[in-house]
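Inverse folding, one chain.
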């Protein structure tokens, strides 16, 4: 029987090659999936690990107040052996150390004691920048630069420290001053070796701990977990090892800190997402491949029907006939398996850009072999079942050359079942999400349902149109339509083409939408094409430095971000916002903030103070001496300069005080004037007013405040809350008096010149804070005091702060803050194309760049996220599906070639023209391809909204702005072009032999 099967394979080489090709496509997809999945899963996990804080990658073990005797090295080695046995982590290189709390008596201030831990750590000198020599022998130490500055110490000095629980002190000699080189690295994650109190630890040689005063240090054993273990290479279960170590550590009386668990959970979740998405993509192709193989078996089964009829006539059993069928299909499928294994590996390497980690090669090879075997077993089952159903027919039906009735009720039931399945998948996708259960297959099932409905419509329309055209004498159209309507299985091939094209369009659309979504997120999170996080003395210094570095205002903009406030606050230099920021329509008008600030009526600014002495002309009505204070702010550095005009007695006088810090350009602005009246004999505040007539400077001489300025009430304001300072404009100047003491209330003491819009204009995203009642909108994020604000525009989203936050003007913010510390992050936004010279200028102005982020770098980092990294594999699977559809076109075009050629030759004998015959020869398959193309695009357009197809979601479920459409015009156009080229070329190559034969057939006879 098997020899008969092999003989049949040799006789029907074309059919065997077709099964080989289809099986190769499906098996190659299955073979590539494990290689690709493990490769990108490791990359996703590696990106998750490397982007996590270093503290989440280090396990900490310590023993508190342990005696070390005369050999601290032996004590550390014993701890390492014990902890390493309780927590076995292959390839891990632990760090050991000791730390002893000590006190340092500062000789500069009698009785002043500072905590100064003394520590030893393996490899200390390799992780710091030393000014001096590395401590090498007992008694030598290195102190931090911050400690050296605070305690006025330097290399070469000696310090006496008193260890805790010790009666005597130990003298240490400072050999170096250190600065941490990799503060964000794994080495410095243990808080024992960072500042936990007054001072940073002083690091010494291990032999220092041989002294009896250091007899009770804390021993530390820190384990940076290797990357391959954190990634879970070769299915390593790190969480199981870490969790199992916890009770063992407790039994050994060791302090055990495991911050790694949550990171491992995220890694496992990312791996699961990758593998799930890979399985979904390959699963769709495998199901399509099985369907295509079964359909090809049905198309090419005419000769096998004859074989089955002969076997039945000779008395063969059903089992014998199935063995014959199995033998014919097994040979090409085995050939497909042999070729698919290396092809899958090569294609996965090409699509992923590399192989998996070496430890997972054997796992990937085994999974690939199992996947190929399972897929080809399914293909063999599909072919066998299709032939077995045919073999049930009587011998007469098997020998009949004319096809049976086109349709029966069973095909309608099958179509209805697929439509119902698509409806259930859509319901699950919309209620539980596209990644839940059957919802993952919703797009493909919707496309299949549309394809089946269109196939029924196409066949019915072709049947009726063909008959009408033939009766009307339009033979070209009539013969083409009849060919489509009467060819068995053409409707299934049409549905197959529709599904393949729809999947290609949806995949390309999802890929393009994912890229657009990542670009949108980067733009929203950054606010500009490039953002520098900088260190500056103050927000004022930041604004001044940026304006000097970019005087034109088109390349750089200062910004301040406070995400700790509720709602978050973003302050920008609004005059430069339109030129620098990557503004989106969701943010509202880009000029809203600048226009609101420009519309505010603000008095002309007061002259800046640049002198070295200030003179105040004042009259006091107090019986006791009063003091007038003034706060100034250097406009270049933001430094607040506090001065006092003391000894103001009753009557009119001029009071002078010295001033430092304002002579440097551009000078100082006046922040406030504060009145501190003297107290009476009973301790209560003395009533009475102090009237300021003028304020002038010397060196150089200039008037800062004259009578006109002082008596203009539009120029002055008091505190917004509490009992304010009493202010009045008189004919001689500005009168100040303190309100009477009231229990439970704080009296204001200052008056402020108005140099910023009030209420402060803001742009608000999201709902107003719950504490805003009616028009009483205030915020405390502008210097710690409640400041009234006015909503100039309400929008849905703002850059950086997202769906809930406040945008305001930076210059207004720093003026209203009145020199108070704002406590957020200082940034410089750079416009697209800003040259390196701008960055150099910022550094020359004294700004230190702490971080440099670009939108492109953020997009590239997001490309390693689990839901994104598998997108190229989805495109690869969609291309394989398109090749399967091309194979279906070739099958449809070739399977009826001989019967069609005979029919057309017969019509030629009856007088059919050569042109009509040739057109009829290829028009049917062309019509199938064209209608399938438009049907596939229509199915994609239906599936996208019905199945809820969107861009791949971010792992953190970020949805600040709506995702872009997952099926744009470019994706549709690309899918249409690819499908037209692949299917068109296949159709043309398939019908060329028939067309050549028809052209060579003369009219009125055969050839």
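Residues assigned per position:
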């Amino acid at each position: 029987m098997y020899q008969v099967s092999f003989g049949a394979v040799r006789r029907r080489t074309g059919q065997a090659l077709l099964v080989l090709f289809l099986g190769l496509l499906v098996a190659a997809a299955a073979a590539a999936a494990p290689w690709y999945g493990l490769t990108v899963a490791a990359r996703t996990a590696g990106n998750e690990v490397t982007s996590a804080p270093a503290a989440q990658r280090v396990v900490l073990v310590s023993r508190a107040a342990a005696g070390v005797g005369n050999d601290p090295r032996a004590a550390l080695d014993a701890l390492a052996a014990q902890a390493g046995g309780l927590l076995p982590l292959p390839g891990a290189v632990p760090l050991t150390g000791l730390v002893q709390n000590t006190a340092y008596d500062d000789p500069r201030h009698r009785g002043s004691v500072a905590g100064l831990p003394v520590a030893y750590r393996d490899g200390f000198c390799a992780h710091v920048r030393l000014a001096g020599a590395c401590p090498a022998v007992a008694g030598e130490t290195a102190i931090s630069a911050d400690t050296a500055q605070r305690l006025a110490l330097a290399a070469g000095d000696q310090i006496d420290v008193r260890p805790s629980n010790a009666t005597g002190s130990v003298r240490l000699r400072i050999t170096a001053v250190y600065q941490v080189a990799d503060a964000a690295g794994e080495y410095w994650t243990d808080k024992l070796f960072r500042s936990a109190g007054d001072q940073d630890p002083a690091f010494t040689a291990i032999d220092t701990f041989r002294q009896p005063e250091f007899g009770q240090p804390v021993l530390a054993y820190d384990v940076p977990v290797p990357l391959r273990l954190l990634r879970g290479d070769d299915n390593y279960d790190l969480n199981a090892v870490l969790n199992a170590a916890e009770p063992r550590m407790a039994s050994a009386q060791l302090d055990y800190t495991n911050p790694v668990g949550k990171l491992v959970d995220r890694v496992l979740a990312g791996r699961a997402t990758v593998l799930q998405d890979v399985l979904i993509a390959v699963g769709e192709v495998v199901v399509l491949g099985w369907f295509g193989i079964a359909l090809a078996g049905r198309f090419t089964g005419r000769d096998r029907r004859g074989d089955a009829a002969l076997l039945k006539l000779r008395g063969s059993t059903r089992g014998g006939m199935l063995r014959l069928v199995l033998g014919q299909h097994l040979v090409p499928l085995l050939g497909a398996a042999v070729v698919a294994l290396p092809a899958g590996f090569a294609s996965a390497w090409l699509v992923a850009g590399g192989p998996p980690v070496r430890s997972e090669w054997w796992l990937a090879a085994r999974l690939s072999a199992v996947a190929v075997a399972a897929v080809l077993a399914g293909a063999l089952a599909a072919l066998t079942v299709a032939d077995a159903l045919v073999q049930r027919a009587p011998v007469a039906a098997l020998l009949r050359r004319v096809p049976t009735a086109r349709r029966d009720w069973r095909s309608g039931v099958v179509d209805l079942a697929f439509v119902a399945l698509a409806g259930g998948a859509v319901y699950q996708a919309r209620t539980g999400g596209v990644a839940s259960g059957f919802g993952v297959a919703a797009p493909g099932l919707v496309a299949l349902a549309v394809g089946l409905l269109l196939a029924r419509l196409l066949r019915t329309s072709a049947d009726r149109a063909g008959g009408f055209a033939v009766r009307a004498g339009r033979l070209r159209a009539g013969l083409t339509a009849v060919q489509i309507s009467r060819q068995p299985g053409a409707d299934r091939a049409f549905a197959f083409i529709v599904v393949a094209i729809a999947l290609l369009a949806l995949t390309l659309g999802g890929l393009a939408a994912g890229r657009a979504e990542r670009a949108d997120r980067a733009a929203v999170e950054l606010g500009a094409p490039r953002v520098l996080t900088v260190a500056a003395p103050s927000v004022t210094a930041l604004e001044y430095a940026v304006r000097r570095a970019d005087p034109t205002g088109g390349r750089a903009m200062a910004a301040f971000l406070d995400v700790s406030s509720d709602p978050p606050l973003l302050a920008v230099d609004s005059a430069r916002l339109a030129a620098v920021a990557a503004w989106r329509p969701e943010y509202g008008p880009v000029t809203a903030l600048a226009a609101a600030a420009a519309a505010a009526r603000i008095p002309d600014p007061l002259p800046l103070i640049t002198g070295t002495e200030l003179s105040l002309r004042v009259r006091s009505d107090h019986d006791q001496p009063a003091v007038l204070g003034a706060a100034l702010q250097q406009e270049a550095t933001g430094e607040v300069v506090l001065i006092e005009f003391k000894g103001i007695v009753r009557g009119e006088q001029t009071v002078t005080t010295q001033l430092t810090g304002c002579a440097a350009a551009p000078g100082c602005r006046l922040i406030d004037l504060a009145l501190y009246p003297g107290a009476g004999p009973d301790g209560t505040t003395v009533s009475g007013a102090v009237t300021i007539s003028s304020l002038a400077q010397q060196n150089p001489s200039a008037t800062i405040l004259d009578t006109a300025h002082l008596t203009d009430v539009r120029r002055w304001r008091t505190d917004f809350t509490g009992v304010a300072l009493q202010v009045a404009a008189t004919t001689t100047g500005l009168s100040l008096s303190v309100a009477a003491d009231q229990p439970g209330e704080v009296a204001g003491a200052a008056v402020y010149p108005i140099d910023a819009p009030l209420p402060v204009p803001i742009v608000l995203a999201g709902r107003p804070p719950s504490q805003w009642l009616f028009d009483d909108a205030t915020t405390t994020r502008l210097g710690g005091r409640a400041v009234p604000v006015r909503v100039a525009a309400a929008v849905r989203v703002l850059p950086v702060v997202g769906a809930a936050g406040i945008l305001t003007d930076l210059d207004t913010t720093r003026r209203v803050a009145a020199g108070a510390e704002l406590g957020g992050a200082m940034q410089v936004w750079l416009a697209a194309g800003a040259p390196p010279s701008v960055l150099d200028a910022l550094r020359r102005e004294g700004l230190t760049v702490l971080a440099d982020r670009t939108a492109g770098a953020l997009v590239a980092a997001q490309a390693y996220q689990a839901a994104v990294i598998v997108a190229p594999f989805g495109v690869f699977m969609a291309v394989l599906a398109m090749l399967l559809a091309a194979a279906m076109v070739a099958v449809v075009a070739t399977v009826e070639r001989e019967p069609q050629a005979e029919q057309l030759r017969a019509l030629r004998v009856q007088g059919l023209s050569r042109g009509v015959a040739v057109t009829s020869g290829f028009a049917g398959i062309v019509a199938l391809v064209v209608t399938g193309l438009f049907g596939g695009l229509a199915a994609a357009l239906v599936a996208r909204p019905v199945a809820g197809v969107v861009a791949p979601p971010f792992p953190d479920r970020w949805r600040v702005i709506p995702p872009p459409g997952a099926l744009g015009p470019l994706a549709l156009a690309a899918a249409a072009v690819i499908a037209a080229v692949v299917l068109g070329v296949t159709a043309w190559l398939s019908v060329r032999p028939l067309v050549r034969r028809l052209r060579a057939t003369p009219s009125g006879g055969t050839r």
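The chain has four domains: 57-267, 404-523+856-1007, 537-602+758-846, 613-753. The chain has 27 helices and 32 strands.
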